[in-house]
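Appendix B. Extra example for self-study. Work through it before the problem class; the solution is given directly after the inputs so you can check yourself.
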Amino acid sequence: KQEVTQIPAALSVPEGENLVLNCSFTDSAIYNLQWFRQDPGKGLTSLLLIQSSQREQTSGRLNASLDKSSGRSTLYIAASQPGDSATYLCAVRSGMGTSGSARQLTFGSGTQLTVLP
Amino acid sequence: DAGITQSPRYKITETGRQVTLMCHQTWSHSYMFWYRQDLGHGLRLIYYSAAADITDKGEVPDGYVVSRSKTENFPLTLESATRSQTSVYFCASSENIAANEQFFGPGTRLTVL
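Solution. Structure tokens for the complete assembly:
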């Protein structure tokens, strides 16, 4: 069974700092990996999707990398801003099996980021 | 409005009552999903649907019923609500199960007293 872990659970940084959020998964046979942002009391907003054949994806100040063999992904946020404060969730879609349930998203518990002005 | 919507946004009910949470998407996505989010457990899949009239269980289906008579709607019913079903429920949709992103609704906060 796929398990996804995000460390740290919470992170507080001063504005302007570059930071890295970590995600690890136990089964490297994944189809893709998706990073989400969740603001308090709100739904999830998709940030980046990395297919299993890709090494990284970039969107603005965000860069996500994927190392399937080691079961790791990182989300790099450049020049952090107070508006980046949110919980960041990593989710993995496992690739094995023909059953649809085997290819559902498995979520980590998230990293709660606070960027201090 | 385009996108994925959920109703109600907040619901308080009592143990034993039937509750239905609604989800509607305007993209004509084939796949729709229901998750619950709880502290300490993250998001867990309850049920999903590959198309109209096709549904399947996720990780935590017990106590829940779904239907999908139309592509755009995917209601989730708690037949006899229990306190352990107090949670935030998210609906999501995806164009297909493979390469595409999942898009999430704003969530329904359900409290069972």
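Self-check: Chain A touches chain B at residues 31-32, 34, 36, 41-46, 49, 51, 89, 91, 100-101, 103-105, 107-110 (CB under 8 Å). If your reasoning did not lead you there, revisit section 3.
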